[in-house]
Amino acid sequence: MPANLPPQYFEAEKRYREAKTDEEKLRALKQMLAIMPKHKGTDKLQADLRRRISKLKKSAEQRKKTKKAFSYVIEKEGAGQVVLVGYPNSGKSQIIKSLTNASPEVASYPFTTKKPSAAMMPFDHIQIQLIDSSPITSDYLDFWMIGIIRNSDGVVLVVDLGTFDPVKQVDRVLKRLLQSKIDLTREEKETDPKDGIAHKKTIIVGNKAELDKSFRNFNLLKKNYGKDFPLVKISAEKKENLKHLKKEIYNLLGIIRIYTKEPREKPDFTDPLILKKGDTVKDAAMVLHKDFAYNLKYARVWGHTKFDGQMVQKDYILQDEDVVEFHI
Ligand SMILES: Nc1nc2c(ncn2[C@@H]2O[C@H](COP(=O)(O)OP(=O)(O)OP(=O)(O)O)[C@@H](O)[C@H]2O)c(=O)[nH]1
Ligand SMILES: [Mg+2]
């Protein structure tokens, strides 16, 4: 330690040692550097201080960045979680407004929605959770959108039929998401750990169907994407074809509703069991209780069986809206 350092230097050094935050440390280091006489004898010490200052600055910047890159987690509710994505102004928020009792901000200027929000859409006897999201373009994708989409059970890609080429809108959204390892597709697939790409089952919705250009634009969409995705044409504002859209959102989830009944009683249509397509009688019993499934002997099914109340085994594959009576 060079002997000719002034007492103020040691005071600053003491403040440095006692500092609790990086900001206090940084301030003390800067004071030490300012106080220290600059000559050959202090070269090494100066360099050391400068290194420590730059390191602290860097870590402060890093912290700021990671603070910005926060993510939103929306807890799943209801029978499934579906996220609406698309170009700015395509009508994502208006669709949520028309399908649920939520009232997200809808505005004629782009980039209105800045963070995700969830709302429940009633469909027959169940509720499906819809998430309103911020817009996507070739150059714009909020960081948190990646987590929201990856975590969802399905995607609705909204296209504005009243403005420029709808095919380009779809192309650009698909391309931007693929850059972030999200592949919107017709069929859900497991993520391959080799490439880490999440494949999300998607439908495309052409919105603003009451506008003049929409006829031509929807045909363009059909020609280019009709084979790759289910397509639905709606007007969210005029509430046209929303019933069809709800059904397609339900289909997107790949789930079935199973009603249960007690022997000699009527089925309970108010609160169906939610199962995946291809699930069996045993899977349905499992939703009720593990032991129940274990003890199950057989079931009677109404709906898609050859005749009403048909006796079936545990491995019988159920279909949407079947009624099941369990026997243990
Ligand atoms: N003509 C017509 N306009 C619509 C329809 N749906 C939405 N709009 C209008 O389109 C504009 C954008 O609607 P938003 O729901 O805010 O669009 P968004 O996709 O949520 O936009 P961002 O939040 O910016 O991504 C608003 O002026 C809406 O009134 C529709 O079916 N027909
Ligand atoms: Mg919006």
Structure explained in plain terms:
With 328 residues, the chain is of the alpha/beta class. It folds into three domains: 7-68, no CATH class; 81-252, P-loop containing nucleotide triphosphate hydrolases (Rossmann fold); 255-327, Beta-grasp domain (Ubiquitin-like (UB roll)). The chain has ten helices and twelve strands. It has helices spanning 7-18, 22-35, 43-68, 92-99, 143-151, 166-179, 214-225, 242-252, 281-288, 290-295; strands at 81-86, 117-123, 126-132, 154-160, 182-185, 198-207, 231-233, 255-260, 268-276, 298-302, 310-312, 323-327. The strands form two sheets. Strands 1, 2, 3, 4, 5, 6 and 7 form a seven-stranded mixed beta sheet that branches. It has a five-stranded mixed beta sheet with strand order 9-8-12-10-11. Helix 1 (7-18) runs antiparallel to helix 2 (22-35) and helix 2 (22-35) packs antiparallel against helix 3 (43-68). The longest helix has 26 residues, at 43-68. It is elongated. The termini are far apart. Bound molecules: guanosine-5'-triphosphate and magnesium ion. Guanosine-5'-triphosphate (GTP) binds next to helix 4.
